[in-house]
Design goal:
Layout lengths: L1 E5 L9 H15 L3 E8 L1 H6 L5 E8 L7 E3 L3 H9 L5 E4 L4 H13 L3 E4 L15 H19 L5 E3 L2 H9 L5 E3 L6 H4 L5 H6 L6 E6 L8 H14 L3 E6 L5 H10 L6 E5 L6 H7 L2 E3 L9 H8 L4 E4 L14 E4 L5 H10 L1 H13 L3 H28 L1
Parallel strand pairs: 1-2, 1-5, 2-3, 5-6, 6-7, 7-8, 9-10, 9-12, 10-11, 12-13, 13-14
Antiparallel strand pairs: 3-4
Helix pairs in contact: 1-15, 3-4, 9-13, 12-14
Length: 389
């Protein structure tokens, strides 16, 4: 099987969408299938690209978030590229011009086309304006666009029941749940002692957060509740791993609150070191309402960390309240659940590891491959019916 992936983000970006794509690609290629990646890129990325299955569109930087780029009129080049490749299926992982090119190619090549919904884009309108009134206007426009956009696809893959319900509430009902996966073995074998030594953390209890440092991840909740947590657990430290446009904002917030000695901003950490950072932690704080699944939470669970996440979030599909972590309903409840997780770390962590195994990449790729096969079988059935007609 040959599958064309259209995506708005790919390497060298390091986010949940890219992680999902890399895991799916690796698993599919391991089973003898071929994955072609079409994505926006820079002139440098085009010139230095050595991956014969990755194609970069001419693009421009998205000014509110420069790490992301928009493909500039990719339609002719995408069709020209795929025409002679014998692609069986087109799978869009984006919603911007790259995603529109996926629709265009599917029509031109008469190939089945599906999509994945990865990101709650309507909740990220703060990148466009600081006005709350205008953010609401842009949010409504975003949902209208998504309703129109996803009508062109046979099915839309979502990674969680929470995401399926959210889309259904906004008029998008052609969904199927296929969670993304992570490498359980890789994340379950970290050695955290050297990380503790690097930051001189000794025997402190570490509340860990891993991810892009952006406002939609709701890190201000963790910072706002930190003082109350420290008052009850003076030996606690907060380790923030990742980078992003809101990094300085959160560092200043910590400084203003006088919490500098309790917070460590580790910045970008190479993937090979991430299991060690997870292993160094005691609890994983994940206050984001934005994530459609939360792969980092599953990575943390693989390492035996209980996760504290919102009840209304993608993580609620696999964080069992009181068994593998805690789900909080109200923001005021967040600190109490973190303290409980610290108290019950070992018991919660063991259950979390069992759940995380079910989300191992290999199992998730099998589910995806079964879905692809079903889409292609249905397409063949339609073609036969047309032939009879």
């Amino acid at each position: 099987m040959k599958i064309a992936y259209f995506t708005d983000t790919y390497l060298p970006n390091n986010d949940g969408v890219v992680t999902c794509l890399l895991n799916f690609r690796k698993g599919l290629e391991k089973r003898g299938h071929e994955v072609i990646i079409l994505t926006p890129g820079t002139k440098k990325q085009k010139k230095e690209n050595r991956d014969e299955n990755v194609y970069y569109f001419t693009s421009a930087s998205f000014k509110p978030y420069p790490d992301y780029r928009l493909a500039l009129f990719p339609f002719p080049s995408a069709k020209k590229l795929l025409k002679g490749m014998g692609v069986d299926l087109i799978h869009s992982h984006g919603i911007a011009t790259t995603g529109l090119a996926a629709i265009d190619c599917a029509k031109e090549l008469k190939k089945p086309c599906i999509a994945s919904f990865h990101t709650m884009v309507p909740s990220a309108t703060h990148y466009l304006t600081s006005s709350h009134g205008m953010q609401k206007v842009f949010e409504d426009v975003a949902w209208k666009y998504l309703r129109w956009y996803y009508k062109f696809f046979k099915k839309v893959i979502v990674p969680s029941e929470f995401t399926r319900k959210t889309l259904e509430e906004h008029g998008i009902s052609n969904t199927v749940i296929i969670p993304a996966g992570m490498d359980y073995k890789f994340y379950s074998k970290g050695e955290g002692e050297w990380v503790r030594k690097r930051y001189r953390l000794g025997k402190k209890k570490i509340i860990l957060h891993v991810g892009r440092i952006v406002k939609e991840k709701n890190l201000e909740l963790l910072i706002n509740e930190a003082e109350s947590i420290i008052n009850k657990k003076p030996n606690v430290a907060f380790l923030i791993v990742g980078q992003g446009p809101a990094e300085e904002h959160y560092k200043n917030m910590v400084k203003i609150k006088g919490l500098g000695e309790h917070f460590i901003f580790a910045g970008f950490v190479p993937k090979k070191e991430l299991p060690d950072y997870y292993a160094a932690g005691d609890v994983f704080a994940f206050p984001s309402y934005f994530d459609t699944q939360g792969l980092v939470a599953l990575e943390a669970m693989s390492a035996g960390l209980p996760v504290v996440a919102p009840e209304r979030s993608g993580s609620s599909d696999f964080v069992e309240d009181g068994k593998s972590g805690y789900l909080f309903r109200e923001e005021v409840d967040f600190r109490e659940k973190l303290l409980l997780a610290l108290e019950n770390r070992d018991e919660l962590g063991e259950r979390g590891k069992e759940i995380a195994k079910e989300y191992d990449s290999d199992r998730r790729v099998e589910a995806l491959l079964e879905f692809y096969s079903l889409i292609l079988e249905n397409e063949k059935g339609k073609e036969k019916e047309k032939g009879k007609g």
